[in-house]
Amino acid sequence: MKSKQLIDYLEGRFPLYLQESYDNSGLQIGDLEQEVKGVLIALDCTEEVVREALKTGCNTLVTHHPLLFKGIKRIGNQNAVERIITTCIKNDLLVYAIHTNLDNHGEGVNKKISDRLGLINIRALVPVKGSLYKLTVFTPLDDVEKVHKNLCTAGAGAIGNYYGCSFQSRGTGTFTPNNKANPTLGKANIPQRVEEVKMEYLVPKHLIGAALNAMHQSHPYEEVAHDLVLLENTDRNLGSGMIGELPEAMSEPNFLNLLKIAFRTGVIRSTAPLGKPVKRVAVCGGSGSFLLKEAIQQGADVFVSSDFKYHDFFEAEGKTMVADIGHYESEQYTQELLLEIIKEKFPNFAVRITEHNTNPINFL
Ligand SMILES: [Zn+2]
């Protein structure tokens, strides 16, 4: 398998357009045509992780946090990033990062966190805009089934847990081929009226290319009349953070205990308990203070995230309890998630998780 196949698969499921504007997800270093010998997964691309990859014969490193994040003006050996770049290039080690596009996906980092807490009825806390399009195709009656099947196979017409969703209405299409046309129906300069079906589908942004291809391949006309329109609708599974409910409400001390066990930590920095049961829970893996207002607005009893600064805690204002469980702790299961994602498609492939705990923070 070439690196390109692995990356096409990852980006097909977790498209790069889902990443935040400040991010640099995607290929960091390496040759897409290289054969993948083995994949090592880590949260961070540290020097010890790179050494482990080389020692274990893995020539592909998939990390959550991008190695190349800020601008790099020289590649020497003065700091870890510079040395890692040099080592990777010298040793043909490909480095790939799947960061906020994994955070902002309904099967990503926050789903894993929600699952650890047993949350139900989950959805994105702040859905991304611009992720959904409406495709309308006008098709002669006899070809409707074929076009419909092809479009659905390409991923058009999926809404939540339903697939094959479309609306089809009959009407009359009119056209007149000119002298240069090669029409399937009719003759040059003779006006045509054809019974057609207007077929409408929701298409997620990253599948537009595939859907248009499927449409053109199965549609009988030389010129396919169609509309592609960006919608204001959002997908509840795509966006920053996640919110859901515990199956049973629990007390705040019990919930904090659950957090400690679920995220294998002895330390949680939280705002004062509010003295009410916890039922609705918002989560955000990694630095999530930017979502605090939204968590409050949506009635979260607790907001579980990390990297809260002193003044950020004040902004909870007694409206929700902030529980800062630590950046590494909140994202630690992302490594397992990546292993599962890759194994799902390539079950026989040599994929492993790093043996190193890359958390740079030490608790005494
Ligand atoms: Zn992170």
Largest sheet: 6 strands, mixed
Helix and strand element order? HEEHEHEHHEEHEEHEEHEEHEHEHHE
- Give every kind of bound small molecule, once each: zinc ion
Euclidean distance between termini CA atoms: 45 Å
Q: What is the share of helical residues?
A: 25-40%
**CATH topology descriptor of the largest domain:** Udp-n-acetylmuramoylalanyl-d-glutamate--2,6- Diaminopimelate Ligase, Chain: A, domain 1
Describe this structure in words.
By secondary structure, this protein is an alpha/beta fold. The chain has three domains: 3-101 and 333-353, Udp-n-acetylmuramoylalanyl-d-glutamate--2,6- Diaminopimelate Ligase, Chain: A, domain 1, CATH 3.40.1390; 109-126 and 239-325, NIF3 (NGG1p interacting factor 3)-like (Udp-n-acetylmuramoylalanyl-d-glutamate--2,6- Diaminopimelate Ligase, Chain: A, domain 1), CATH 3.40.1390.30; 132-230, Alpha-Beta Plaits, CATH 3.30.70. Helices cover 29% and strands 26% of the residues. The protein is built from twelve helices and 15 strands. It has a six-stranded mixed sheet. A five-stranded mixed sheet has the order 1-4-3-2-15, sandwiched between helices. Strands 7-8-6-9 form a four-stranded antiparallel sheet. The longest helix is centred in the C-terminal third of the chain and has 12 residues, at 334-345. The protein is globular. The model has no long low-confidence stretch (mean pLDDT 96).
